[in-house]
């Protein structure tokens, strides 16, 4: 049994900055977010998303030519590839790929580009907690940079529940390890509905609903970030 | 996705420009592109940017048993990946010729030049040594991958720290970074590759070819050298004839370039070390240029979650009460249990077997758990054929083979057909019919 994929594949000397609770009345907070778009020259869209020390790079190709075997006659074929930092992609990556793929399929208007392919390649650069949420955010920023039509935007938020039932937003790797339950939600920008959810551990219905509600609040912050960064990007046009 | 081919006029234009000693990006013939090195928050993690070519390097280590013929030497392992992110032509799960070539060259440059002291990686001779693994991911391919890869590999190795170990008798103790400071690898020298592209059968020479230049070049010469001007590897490909003078001139240029690059690497490493020592901020987030309009950053943002609990309670109050959950599995009959909700299970319902005969046509979708299904379905279909020949007609599929194999045995064994068996037979029969219909 593998514990966490990072550990099984050898030791990476890690330095992690602690997530501090915000001074103002001990509210849970999101770590610092940094995003750069269009940093790669080859892909049609690219984004590097950093959330605290966690960092993910996304490259998006599409709409482009599709292999005949993968062609879908009435919509675009969406592919997601998640590449770990050390070693080859395994079961862990494959399951994450599926989750991200289903989320993207829910928002990308694939019917506008039938018989073409959209490929999203995600490269993990640093894993310091909330990796799936960061992957989702990077994928969305990449899709935005590639200029693909989407019904709405989406973002990923991770919540960690400790044994006392208190939740932390955007946990670090250490917090994730200590937590009883780690929940990740993908939330859309229009109705703030949950597009995808992933849960590790157990929790009660009340706790689940609390986490959903908290994630929806956190999503507002992330969507505001998307908006501001798009405003900045097109400010000189 | 296929690579977009370079058109003939583009090729001619490039070659013509090279003849006039001009390059598309405005460089001189012997100019190297800008080199930028940034470090991640982990040890042994770096991104090297050579112009627009970008490579991510990560070093990790593991304690393994050494190879029997080299009992006192640690293991060095290189893995260069051509990620589909780098170019649409790179497909996942395939090993193109280029990848094999690059990996081989990288191994020759870094392992065979013995730049890392592998003996210092030995913990217990013949039992435990460190395996150092270097993963390189090409993030963007814009030419000259080998130079960028060799720089990324050596920078990542220089930056890496492995956990400290101590040996007391037979016992090996591994210390966490909190207990003891991790130790750097002992590196003798830093070999760096420099590529030269030749055009017109070696008439024209360019240092650090870009992706487009690589596509029109006739031949490539790669020289790996360290700052002491010792050649570690030399490789010529493309099948061009080179004169002795040309090779000597190339090695002289390599010497100059390697000295420049080594100085840059050393400076980058020192800067990072200083920042870490002072406890300042390190990581890729720090190296994102702030003034770029494509980059945006926000500081730690608090999220107002005060009334989350009320909201959650409200949702739960509005929602339908959850249906009763069966906590313990219900044992219907030996070998058949049910947990949770679902359709009413009529397995083991001995009296209801008559009713089921009519129902089984409808209830085809109910899952059947039979231990040795092969045997059961085999004899089941025989008996159903005997009873209701008009409803079930076996097709010439492979199911019939099972029937022919052991009809006597099964019939003898199961002369007294219990109602349960009958139910199964009906159900499987129904399932088969469905299968045939879908064929």
From TrEMBL, chain A:
InterPro entries noted in UniProt: ExoRNase_PH_dom1, ExoRNase_PH_dom2, ExoRNase_PH_dom2_sf, PNPase/RNase_PH_dom_sf, Ribosomal_Su5_D2-typ_SF, RNase_PH
Domain of life: Eukaryota
Main location: cytoplasm
All copies of domain Exoribonuclease phosphorolytic, residue ranges: 30-149, 153-217
One of the record's GO cellular component terms: nucleolus
Cell compartments where the protein resides: Cytoplasm; Nucleus, Nucleolus
Keywords: Cytoplasm, DNA-binding, Exosome, Nucleus, Phosphoprotein, rRNA processing
Any one GO MF annotation of this record: RNA binding
A UniProt-annotated Pfam family: RNase_PH_C
Subunit structure: Homodimer. Component of the RNA exosome core complex (Exo-9), composed of EXOSC1, EXOSC2, EXOSC3, EXOSC4, EXOSC5, EXOSC6, EXOSC7, EXOSC8 and EXOSC9; within the complex interacts with EXOSC3, EXOSC8, and EXOSC9. The catalytically inactive RNA exosome core complex (Exo-9) associates with the catalytic subunit EXOSC10/RRP6. Exo-9 may associate with DIS3 to form the nucleolar exosome complex, or DIS3L to form the cytoplasmic exosome complex.
Stated name of the protein: Exosome complex component RRP46
Species of provenance: Anolis carolinensis
UniProtKB/TrEMBL annotation, chain B:
Keyword Ribosomal protein attributed: no
GO molecular function: mRNA 3'-UTR AU-rich region binding
Positions with biased composition (Acidic residues): 354-364
Keywords: Cytoplasm, Exosome, Nucleus, RNA-binding, rRNA processing
Bias kind Basic residues: ranges: 428-439
Domain of life: Eukaryota
InterPro entries xref list: ExoRNase_PH_dom1, ExoRNase_PH_dom2, ExoRNase_PH_dom2_sf, Exosome_comp_Rrp42_subfam, PNPase/RNase_PH_dom_sf, Ribosomal_Su5_D2-typ_SF, Rrp45
Record domain Exoribonuclease phosphorolytic: where: 32-163, 189-253
UniProt GO BP: exonucleolytic trimming to generate mature 3'-end of 5.8S rRNA from tricistronic rRNA transcript (SSU-rRNA, 5.8S rRNA, LSU-rRNA); nuclear mRNA surveillance; nuclear polyadenylation-dependent rRNA catabolic process; positive regulation of cell growth; rRNA catabolic process; TRAMP-dependent tRNA surveillance pathway; U1 snRNA 3'-end processing; U4 snRNA 3'-end processing
Keyword Lipoprotein: no
Disordered: annotated segments: 341-439
Localization, UniProt: Cytoplasm; Nucleus, Nucleolus
Basic and acidic residues compositional bias, start-end: 409-425
GO cellular component labels: cytoplasmic exosome (RNase complex); cytosol; nuclear chromosome; nuclear exosome (RNase complex); nucleolus; nucleoplasm
PANTHER family per UniProt: EXOSOME COMPLEX COMPONENT RRP45, EXOSOME COMPLEX EXONUCLEASE RIBOSOMAL RNA PROCESSING PROTEIN
Family as reported in the entry's similarity comment: Belongs to the RNase PH family.
Name assigned to this protein: Exosome complex component RRP45
Organism, scientific name: Anolis carolinensis (Green anole)
